[in-house]
């Protein structure tokens, strides 16, 4: 009985002495919960502001806001091609740069006939060095170029063992992915700065936001375009140039075959273009934003294990 009384006495004494600590821990817990709730509310607000509210507003006059012409490289990819078509739907004329203009002649004709804008094809292969820049300079001379849209080479999205890639293939594809974006932006930027308006949109891959198996070159090229966009934003954002990094996840290649998580190119491009002037880094499509958030939350070992199982 004495032992029981001694235990209760000891418990009361410990409770009184630790009461202040308990209250402090409770306060810390409340602050932590409040901070998490504030972050969740902020994320929901950003999602609404970026992906839903712009689509409730009448279509903006992109020609007046940015310029009459768009300079597009990497249009062999599904997303970049659809993005160019969406700009054309807003009345923007298109200059398509490609090392193989024959494969894109149908795209240029369709853009011109469907939307009543000019669509110009320029044959440029940046793997041949800076001498090809003259063709781009001739194409944009005396034109109100307000958009630069750069995309990664479609060949980068095909899984490859890095050690099995040929030196020639790596040189061609990586040069087109990084040098093309850098040089095309450099050639168009002085005119946009002089007019104090314009948009640079670099489209890469949200699937490579974390390291993935057999996609080392895609991950590296995505990181390059991401940091290139951020650096340009800080350097030219105050001079009227809007710079945006767009990192889509899976987009269906054929029209009408998309789903909620993997839309077709036209649906995706409509969402992505609506974010112009609002956000400098975006997936372009709100279900992709949810998926990207989950990927960032996931530990890297879990991401790599999942990519290994799906490879």
UniProtKB/TrEMBL annotation:
Record-linked Pfam families: adh_short
Main location: mitochondrion
Keyword Mitochondrion recorded: yes
UniProt GO cellular component terms: mitochondrion
InterPro entries: 17-beta-HSD3-like, NAD(P)-bd_dom_sf, SDR_fam
Subcellular location(s) per record: Mitochondrion
PANTHER family xrefs: INACTIVE HYDROXYSTEROID DEHYDROGENASE-LIKE PROTEIN 1
Family statement drawn from the similarity comment of this UniProt entry: Belongs to the short-chain dehydrogenases/reductases (SDR) family. 17-beta-HSD 3 subfamily.
Protein name as catalogued: Inactive hydroxysteroid dehydrogenase-like protein 1
Taxonomic path: Eukaryota, Metazoa, Chordata, Craniata, Vertebrata
Gene: HSDL1
